[in-house]
Amino acid sequence: MPGQPGQQASQGQPAMPGQPGSAAASPFGFPFGTPFGNPFAAPAGGFVPGQGFPPGTGVPPAPGMAPGVYPHAPAFAAFQGAGAAMAMTPEAGAATAAPEAEPAVSAWTRNAPFTATLSTRQKITSRNAEKDVQHIEIDLEGSGIQYQPGDALGVWPVNAPALVSEILERHKLDGTETVKLADGSEATLRDALTHHADITQNTPTLVEQYAALSKLRPLQELVEDRKALDALLATTPPVGLFAEYPHPLPAQQLFSLFRPQSPRLYSIASAQDEVGDAVHLTVGVVHLRHHGQHYMGAASGYLGHLLEEDDDVRVFIEPNRNFRLPADDDTPIIMIGAGTGVAPFRAFMQQRGAAGATGKNWLIFGNQRFTDDFLYQAEWLQYRKSGLLTRADLAWSRQGEHKVYVQHKLQEAGADVWQWLQEGAHVYVCGDATRMARDVENALLDIIRTHGRLDEDDADDYLNTLREDRRYQRDVY
Ligand SMILES: Cc1cc2nc3c(=O)[nH]c(=O)nc-3n(C[C@H](O)[C@H](O)[C@H](O)COP(=O)(O)OP(=O)(O)OC[C@H]3O[C@@H](n4cnc5c(N)ncnc54)[C@H](O)[C@@H]3O)c2cc1C
Ligand SMILES: NC(=O)c1ccc[n+]([C@@H]2O[C@H](COP(=O)([O-])OP(=O)(O)OC[C@H]3O[C@@H](n4cnc5c(N)ncnc54)[C@H](OP(=O)(O)O)[C@@H]3O)[C@@H](O)[C@H]2O)c1
Asked: What's the pLDDT tens digit per position in 46-83?
């Protein structure tokens, strides 16, 4: 395997406030040293990308497992050290990326997906975390699929058998009834609800049609009231609607209520130069409760809990040419991500490590709590230790008196952000589109105004130019 992370020449020793191992307070509100230990100490028993488990840990490498693969192992426990913001060493300026021709992806598409297999799954939030985030590895052997860091994987979900059964029971059907699918072919109702219908996402149309078919007066009144309808949609999955407003429908009417199933996209968290014929994902499982029952999102529940190892999963690559590493390996990058938004940055680091890229890499990552939600903690610390990761700033939103978000870290480091921009840095943002991405953009504009001494219009122009030059790219959802 060419150029493992960890082979990268060190880009200078960390020089940081609150030296790890010292009693000084870290910038993240944790004292370094006990109880979290030294984040830069040698791994105490965790998996290290490109190196595997240290001898004596009793964790053998899985047969055929590529370096960088996350096996079932206590990787989360590998480092309980706080991350730290590192001072960076200024380097020479960098070139601007230009869109370039890319190799064809593969013959496998949304409508003709490849049947891959799930090879590994591991929860990467702690037992106490509010979020359930699963690291997923899918074997692509035999597909010929090629992807680039920045691409997404499309996954066709298979609906949960328990959810299909509950919907059937609520309509007093046994699932053996025959229904007509959108393409005119026939299937049993159970098969149709399992594979062909989106039975997890509620829509105004679904509620309106159900109100019309059921002729239930309270539901008909509800759909006339936009606010009440929105409130119902925000909290009620289709099965919850059937539970709250029972009215058994015949098989075809029931099936026709639902939109056709659609694949869900996941930012790819691996680089093929590192993992070969595999693809890694970082899946935040959607859990919800209604009428005393627990449900999961169709695709996140399927990937995160329902699929068993070696089970089939239908996938395809969704290329994203608007989220690409700079063409020039010397160019510095600033990666800003919250929650599962960290996924493509893991791919970026694997790629830069494999390529022996010399450009500086800065991660600004935010999540709820350091102890519970530091996704890929051991890997980031190892990258930091090897020098591949030049700087890491971490924002924990639920462990202090005040919310600390990635944009706060960005603003605190405004002078350095501006300096990196002068050196030609590319800026990447990944994660929540509605709140985080908007606030990060405002923080960037503020930095450009303050440190570039530009007025509002000129700062807007500056950011637009970065965007046009492909130096400001977002993968937000
Ligand atoms: C380009 C792109 C990249 C993405 N990358 C990732 C990624 O790397 N990791 C990742 O986890 N997701 C990612 N997503 C989101 C992912 O595609 C799904 O939307 C998500 O997993 C929910 O799908 P589901 O099938 O599990 O839930 P659904 O069955 O679609 O939804 C079930 C119910 O939950 C609600 N819901 C949906 N999402 C959430 C949520 N996050 N929190 C609360 N309620 C919700 C829905 O409104 C619905 O009521 C990405 C999306 C896009 C467009
Ligand atoms: N469709 C939906 O209903 C829905 C709901 C949630 C997430 N999502 C999607 O799922 C993606 C990933 O979710 P996730 O659970 O991994 O992460 P997330 O919900 O985006 O949370 C990650 C971190 O971002 C913080 N955050 C909240 N508001 C922020 C803001 N305005 N600016 C910066 N940071 C902010 C959160 O803090 P706090 O939570 O402590 O405030 C948390 O620390 C999101 O990006 C989003 O697109 C969808």
From this structure: 333 333 333 333 233 333 333 333 333 323 333 323 33
Q: Which CATH superfamily is domain 114-154+265-297+304-318 in?
A: Translation factors (2.40.30.10)
Q: What is the pTM of this model?
A: 0.84
Q: Which residue puts its alpha carbon closest to atom 43 of ligand 2?
A: 367
Q: Which CATH number fits domain 161-260: 3.90.550.10, 1.10.940.10, 1.10.760.10, 1.20.990.10?
A: 1.20.990.10
Helix (H, G, I), strand (E, B) or coil at 365: strand
Buried b / exposed e along 405-423 (16+ C-beta atoms within 10 A): bbbbbbbbbbebbbebbeb
Tell me the pLDDT tens digit for each residue of 281-309: 999 999 999 999 999 999 999 999 999 99
3-state secondary structure of 451: helix
Say whether 309 sits in a helix, a strand or coil: coil
The answer to whether the CB of 298 is under 6 A from ligand 1 is yes
Pocket of ligand 2 contains residue 369 by CB under 6 Å: no
Q: Ligand 2 test: best mutation among 131, 432, 435, 475, most atoms within 8 Å of CB?
A: 432
